[in-house]
Amino acid sequence: MNSWIERNIGYTLVDGESQFSIDFAGMKFTEQELDALQPKFERAVREMARLEAGAIKNPDENRKVTHFTDRVDYPKTKLFTSVEKFAEQARTGKITGETGRKFTAVVVNGIGGSALGPELMQFVINGPYWNEKTDTARNGYLKVYFLDNTDSAEFADLSEVMDPETTLHLVISKSGGTQETCNNMIAMEELYAARKLSFAKHAAAITMKDSKLDKHAREDNWLAVFEMAESIGGRTSETSIVGHVPAAVTGVNFRRFLEGACHMDEWTRTADPKKNPAMMLAAMWYIAGEGKGNRNMVIVPYSDRLILLSRYLQQLVMESLGKELDLDGHVVHQGLNVFGNKGGTDAHAFIQQLNDGRDDFFATFIEVLKDAEKLPITDATDMGTYLHGFLEGLSAALRGKGRQYITIRVPQITEFELGMLIALYERAVAIYAEFININAFHQPGVQSYKLAAKGVLALREKLIKKFYELGKVTGTAAELAVKVGCPDDAVEIGGLLDKSCVNCPHITRTFCEKSNQWVYSIK
Amino acid sequence: MNSWIERNIGYTLVDGESQFSIDFAGMKFTEQELDALQPKFERAVREMARLEAGAIKNPDENRKVTHFTDRVDYPKTKLFTSVEKFAEQARTGKITGETGRKFTAVVVNGIGGSALGPELMQFVINGPYWNEKTDTARNGYLKVYFLDNTDSAEFADLSEVMDPETTLHLVISKSGGTQETCNNMIAMEELYAARKLSFAKHAAAITMKDSKLDKHAREDNWLAVFEMAESIGGRTSETSIVGHVPAAVTGVNFRRFLEGACHMDEWTRTADPKKNPAMMLAAMWYIAGEGKGNRNMVIVPYSDRLILLSRYLQQLVMESLGKELDLDGHVVHQGLNVFGNKGGTDAHAFIQQLNDGRDDFFATFIEVLKDAEKLPITDATDMGTYLHGFLEGLSAALRGKGRQYITIRVPQITEFELGMLIALYERAVAIYAEFININAFHQPGVQSYKLAAKGVLALREKLIKKFYELGKVTGTAAELAVKVGCPDDAVEIGGLLDKSCVNCPHITRTFCEKSNQWVYSIK
Questions:
Q1: Which tens digits make up the pLDDT trace of B267-284?
Q2: Strand bridging mode B167-172 / A404-410
């Protein structure tokens, strides 16, 4: 047998039951490099066991990390049953909005961890055209929309197609104070009030007990409040209540999804690291990127339904691993870049660079073996044949050029396999974090920009007040900054004025070529 | 004035007429570094002038590169008029499908350069819910769907919602032989035939004269064939007929889009590189990445409508710049990675890493100043205020940590500004290619995988024949590879068998734990 074939056999892990396989033969590691990781493997085994036993694994926030274990018991809980019941009542019209009409759509209002998982799930299970199907084709389940930013264009676009009377609103914020989510909720409350409807009678919340959102929803007597455990982080909340409610009201088999995740959890608890797909995956990332993320992870699912996977993993991996300090407080500036879309399409886009250009990545291919439909192209081929051929062709081309890749194969992509995929990456991220000695479960970098944003908003309030006092004024941002007593904030003041010029009739600007600056006039 | 403010004023370029601005103050270059690029600037000026004068700028394919110049004259051509007329006839029902019913939807069948631009345009101009609007709300213009892969799931999803009688099909392939596009066309022809309808009477083609597709469409007497110039490359075809037809039938003001592109073309012909936004943009990429793409370009538009921009630029930049050889034939392995989604959402995802983790990127923010709607949040703020605040906050946080960013601001995002954005990046890519002495207009890396894919398909045909001769056989991929006389192709044979097992009743597999291999049975 030639050495390439031997390598393939040796470095392919297969779960016979689910037919899920992961093949590391396309990666350029040696047996010695793998063996050298033994102490790291041991640490990871020990720490994952501690994590699953309930130890504090997010020391900065003094928190347990329970997403790997909660999902075993979750289907047996009252919370699970209450969600399934709520969804069934929404589907059959036993719960309705204020005017008694059956719900036909759900708006999921959440950002980051409260949106990316539900978005991925919808696309994988219900496909791109779910909202264009009839109520009958949807079996009474709800159309689904997302508000996952604080952009008035997103809100305006939704308002154009949304029927307030028949729309259910899920407001998801673990802390209950996420500004973007809160903004969309307030704007939606206004929209309902303007139409003489009660938002509360169309709304349900997912949040921690006693959060601002929890109190608000209870005070206003919303349709439901579903409690989220403190020990589940946003980016790992897809197997919790955060994933469950949007899934249940849109007909997704969430129980099956959890079974897939738990099945992968079992597999990835395998003690022998060389037989443990999460351990091997983390080892590949570590060896390929020299423990510092020196190679980008390019995610290329050969499946249209999986196009959002790269975006989901971008959050899971980069927010977990992109850290300044390690657990001992040393500055390490860690991270691992993730991007990608879908193959074969990407072969007509960025894959020119992967083939010929910078050798600064490893690709991860995900093949879905089952064809959705048999579509003959020639006597001997069908559409699925070509997709497979392009994947194998690209793999061979990359191999020929010494570029690296991992291949995951699943027989089909249902809730079960999606659960397996997510659980695999969740654990690989947690293990890799042990390899590089960082806290994968906090996000301190988000604080600095939030604080700076607050500063900008405070500056804005100050400006409004000062300009009101000053009356008519004209000048560049730097000149106006002096006038209002904030000479060091000219850049931010310029930004605020630029924003105001196009949104507020009292402020205009003209560009002065000579000074290369905008000149603002405030009435 | 403090130095940061001075830097901002000095390194912000503004076009007063369009109010488009681009600010390089957040990048860490020095005046000296910029001056050192003078010879490169001069080469770029000279070469861009040669390109625009009609020189051969794609030497490998002996081709001119005319997308920067064609768009000036295109609106005055008969081709332009014929597209506008065709679109108006489709909108008003003067052209219909076979059964005489008005077209309500268009399927755009194309991949890579024939899909990413039209997809971006649709999302920016018609928004995420265009297909859910009524015919009246769409002013009679068509709903739009894309087939941009060779995935049977994509085709099956479309079939579920498509009404063949009222659907127009645009088949786009410059060469006329793109396999993925051809596959979708064949499958669609089959679908129509199965329903006793004529695909030809619902179809229009965009392709080069005398291509396979051109001949096929003319022979079958399709509704229309629009000719594509040989001198326009796929990834720079959005301002050509490729962008025009999908835009026109969906009510996009394509003339205005071209005006925006031409307006940017004028600006980016500015001789002084420090006043030329494309020259400066290319210089920033060059300095930040040390001329080798050592930093990833992270595209973060603070605008939901622009979420597909990163995917579009990923193709434009990576396929153009990701090259093995320079123009002198030296191995250089160039490239520039591009990824991103949308701000502020991404602040809840991967931006943790940008703030705290690896310092291996520069961000490009794109702010759309005009709010789609005024949505009050508090007495003093509205939704747009927050989006602006988060952008400024993130900029300040990154600056504080010594991370780099560029900020582009546009007053709003209409066809005109999208034209400006695309033209800016097209020219920056062409200029950067001159800086690093590569051919930006070919894609040789795509050939190797296409050839390898053909090999896999040929192997498959051989296998089918051999297995037919052999009758019932059982074995691992390696064993079967020997049996069919292709011992070196065991990996590819394994892949083909895996694919067949879940799609073909004659082949099954079971996993052998002992040998860690699948054992296949062929009947």
A1: 999 999 999 999 999 999
A2: unpaired
What DSSP state is assigned to residue A77? Answer: S
Q: Is the ipTM of this complex over 0.95?
A: yes
Count of positions (residues) in chain B:
523
Distance between CA atoms of B41 and B47, rounded to whole angstroms?
Answer: 10
User: What 3-state DSSP class applies to A226?
Assistant: strand
DSSP class of residue B142 equals P
DSSP structure string for B338-370:
EE---TTGGGGTTHHHHHHS---EEEEEEEE-S
Q: A73, A260 in Cβ contact below 8 A?
A: no
B chain contacts of residue A373, beta-carbon cutoff 8 Å: 152-153, 155-156, 159
- Mark which residues 79-98 of A lie under 8 Å from B by CB: none
B283 Cβ neighbours under 8 A, 6+ residues apart: B29, B34, B37, B41, B273, B435
Apex CA A275: angle with CA A274 and CA A277, to 5°? 95
Q: How many residues does chain A have?
A: 523
Structure tokens at A250: 């849109």
Q: Which helix (H) or strand (E) holds B246?
A: helix B241-248
The CA distances from residue A427 to A267, A364, A431, B440, in Å, are 11, 16, 6, 41
- Name the H helices within B98-220: 116-126, 152-161, 179-194, 212-219
Residue holding tokens 């083939």?
A355
Interface residue of A147, A172, A358 to substitute, partner B, most B CBs within 10 Å:
A358
Contacts of B367 in chain A (CB under 8 A): 499
pTM metric for this prediction: 0.98
Pairwise CA distance, residues B269 & B141, whole Å: 36
Beta bridge partners of B409: B21, B367
Residue B114, CA distances (Å) to B169, B181, B312 in order: 14, 10, 11
> pLDDT value at position A199?
98
Which residues of chain A neighbour B160 with C-beta distances below 8 Å?
127, 129, 133, 137
- Give the Å distances, CA to CA, from B3 to A37, A488, B6, B112: 48, 10, 5, 44
Whether A1 has a pLDDT exceeding 70, the answer reads: no
CB A358 within 8 A of CB B335: yes
Residue B55: phi, psi to the nearest 5? Answer: -70, 160
Tens digit of pLDDT for each residue in B325-376?
Answer: 999 999 999 999 999 999 989 888 999 999 999 999 999 999 999 999 999 9
Residues 6+ apart with CB under 8 A from A165: A97, A98, A99, A101, A197
Half-sphere exposure of A167 (CA within 13 A, CB side): 24
Whether A356 sits inside 8 A of B323 (CB atoms) is yes
Burial readout A458-478 (b: 16 or more C-beta within 10 A, e: otherwise): ebbeebeeebeeeeeeebbbb
